[in-house]
Amino acid sequence: MDNLLALFPLNLVLFPGATVPLHIFEPRYRQMINRCAQLSQPFGVVLISEGVAEGGPVAEPHEIGTTAIIQNVLRFPDGRMLIAAVGDRRFRIRSIVQREPYMVASVEYLPEEMSPEAANTVEHIKVLYSRHRDALTHATGVTQQMDDLPNDPIALSYHLSSQFQILDDSKQQLLEAELDVRLAAIADALDRELRLLPQPPLIPHPGGTGPWTLN
């Protein structure tokens, strides 16, 4: 049996575990979100590869996206909605089965495969992450907020990927990558930026992590 999923092509990449607020105002997407909310069904967020997000024909999406589960809906008298949705599972589009009034696709869900090397890479990333936070504090004079990173390699890879301030096409590559490739890219990005930041004095660190932004 096909897995049918309503698609929302957008100019953003949604990672599993990340929350996204969306303003729903086009009639076709009001219809889609109303149906998904009534049936407690997810919809798929896909980065636009060709076309525009609003008005005109439905934009062409990238092949791989993430399901979004609706968490909250705020409705306005004119039919507009503000929703909060959280990313859940990656999927690959097999075929488009409907284009009007909104796109529906037959999809396959992508497995999350763990490797023996992933746990060691996570520990390395946590060290780089902590050093990066300290270097940012030293460079800007602003103490970085403390935050715990997930221990699970898959959750950590998506958590950090969602924080990158990079082009959407680069984020799409991270979403599509296998776990080890994604973790290696994160470690490489942290290491490269650390080389550009002035390093703080070597002092004992109590541990913990905090949010950061790669520019």
Map the helices and strands.
Blueprint: E1 3-10, E2 19-24, H1 27-39, E3 43-50, E4 60-61, E5 64-75, E6 81-98, E7 104-109, H2 118-140, H3 153-161, H4 168-176, H5 179-196
Parallel strand pairs: 1-3
Antiparallel strand pairs: 1-7, 2-6, 3-4, 3-5, 5-6, 6-7
Helix pairs in contact: 2-5, 3-5
Question: Describe it for me?
Answer:
With 215 residues, the protein is α+β, with helices and mostly antiparallel strands. It folds into two domains: 3-109, Archaeosine Trna-guanine Transglycosylase, Chain: A, domain 4; 118-196, Methane Monooxygenase Hydroxylase, Chain G, domain 1. Helices cover 33% and strands 28% of the residues. It has five helices and seven strands; from the N terminus they run E-E-H-E-E-E-E-E-H-H-H-H. It has a five-stranded mixed β-barrel with strand order 1-3-5-6-7. A hairpin with a 5-residue loop joins strand 5 and strand 6. Helix 2 runs parallel beside helix 5 and helix 3 crosses helix 5. The chain starts with a strand and ends in a 19-residue tail after the last helix.
Quick summary of this structure?
A 5-stranded mixed barrel has the order 1-3-5-6-7. The chain contains 5 helices and 7 strands; from the N terminus they run E-E-H-E-E-E-E-E-H-H-H-H. It is an alpha+beta fold.
